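Researcher: Re-running this chain for the archive, since the previous output was lost when a drive failed. Same request as before.
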Amino acid sequence: MPALLSTATISIISTGAINALTDSRLVIEAVVEHLEAKRQVFARLEALYEESFHA
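Model: Regenerated structure tokens:
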């Protein structure tokens, strides 16, 4: 299990640019607790991944 955890943490990056996430298989949202800000982020993510969601 430690090897798996080590491999996973190496792949974790932080980005403020949503377009940089196009090759990601997992996205963890960490937006301020402001509903409208979260809605905007999720709308942008949905638009970015729309083809993947419906494939």
